[in-house]
Structures are given as structure tokens and as C-alpha cells.
Amino acid sequence: MKLRWMSSELTDPSPADIYDPDFVKGVFDRCSGKYIAFSYACSFGFIERWRRQCVDSLAEPANAMPVAFDLMAGTGEVWPHLLKRWPQLSSITAVDISSGMPKRALERLHKHRAHKIEFIEDDVLESQLPENTADLIVSTFGLKTFSPEQHAKLARLVARVLKPGSSFAFIEASDPKGRILRPLYRLHLRGLLPLVERLFLNGAQDFTMIGDDSENFGNAAEFSKRLRSEGLEVAYHKYFFGCASGVSGTKPT
């Protein structure tokens, strides 16, 4: 794996703005060591199924050796799904603002595949990813870290970086809205996450903050509108009665 560090030294974040890039970086740097286990346990294992479903929603690329971009890449947990579906992938360019997350990705990625990964530490919304270069763009569980205004900027990035005729897919934990599941969802965020932190994570509040982000996010419906406004063809998806939602689509030729 090639690591390319693009961010400058970050200042202390302001807790008042949960969407501030410095604040987001701090949260995920501190969470990186236990993020994989925590997210798997607190999603009751669904998170891995949702990642696979997200990759399955990508269209087949025209390029025989496609170039993939993983935005808000975290610990690289979607890479095995991408590489299983397309073993002939030319490369995966992974972008994440966190310094701690790629270290975890390095630890868990099979070494014979590492040469296909280029990791860029950067705020994806400010990144200078080249235009019309991606055959595939994927992102799993990063949308919640952005405000609606930042979602608009992200949609512009997707439209700029995708090649014409190429596809994208995003997925995020979501508010199921229904009268039965929504109370359970809120209990999960407001009761289970803080309890797990107190018992197993030395009282840290970072995972609770991630839960707050999920609740504020709602679902991917508004993000789908942002993508359509950039001229992309978009399908909206709900997973497990709305406990996760996503979008997939293509850039017209």
C-alpha cells in the first residue's frame, strides 16, 4: 500500500461544530483502534452485509481493469468486497481525513493486494482528485459526517471525478422512521452506544458522537437529490426496513 499524506497539521477542533473537518478527524483518529469491532457489534453484523450490498449495486465497468475510488475510506473494510467482485481492479484510491484509520487498514489488508491501494489522507471535499478518472466510486458509512451543504459539495466531486458511463454507490446507517423500528433505533443510539462506551471504552464519547451523526443524517434521500442536480442518474435504496439507506447510479455518457 502506498501512503500519500496531503493534509497539513490540524489545529484543535471546535466541539461546537460536529461537521468541522478538524473535529471529524479527531473523532475518527481516537476511534480507529476499536472502530471495526464496535461497528460490527453495534450493527449486529449487518454492517458487513450492507457493504457487500453497496458494492453489488455498482454497475459493471466498461474498462477491463477498472480504477476505483473509495471516499471516506476508513479502515478499508469495503476493499475485500471490491476485490472479490473485480479481481482485475487496476487500483483503489482511498481517501480519508483520519490518520489512524489507514494504520488499521494496513494491519488487516492481505499483503498480496496492498500494491493496488493508494491511500490519501485528506479532507475529501478539498481533495484535488483528477477529473474523469474513476470507473467506480464507492463510499460506505461516511455520509453522516457531512452537513447538507457538504453533501452538495460531495455530489459535485462525484460528478467531476467519474468517467462518463461509470458508476457510484454510497451507503449509510439511517433512521428507519417506522413506528416499530424507530423507537428501537433511538434506544440503540441513546441507550446501547453510551452503555457500551462506559463498559468497554473507558467512558469515551466518540462513538456516541458517531451515533449522533447518524441520527442527524436521517437517510440518503436528500443526498440522492444533490447527485441528480449534478446531472447523474441515481437510484435510491433502503436496506433492512430503512435501517440503512443508499444511492447508486451512473454518469451519463
Number of strands: 8
What is the ordering of alpha helices and beta strands? EHHHEHEHEEHEHHHEE
The whole-number mean of residue pLDDT values reads: 82
- How many helices in DSSP terms? 9
**Major β-sheet annotation:** 8 strands, mixed
Taking Cα atoms only, what radius of gyration do you get, to the nearest Å? 17 Å
Query: What class, by secondary structure content?
Result: alpha/beta
Write up what this structure looks like:
This protein has 253 residues and is α/β, with parallel strands linked by helices. The protein has a domain at 15-65 and 132-250: Vaccinia Virus protein VP39 (Rossmann fold, 3-Layer(aba) Sandwich). The chain is built from nine helices and eight strands. The chain has an eight-stranded mixed beta sheet with strand order 1-4-3-2-5-6-8-7, sandwiched between helices.
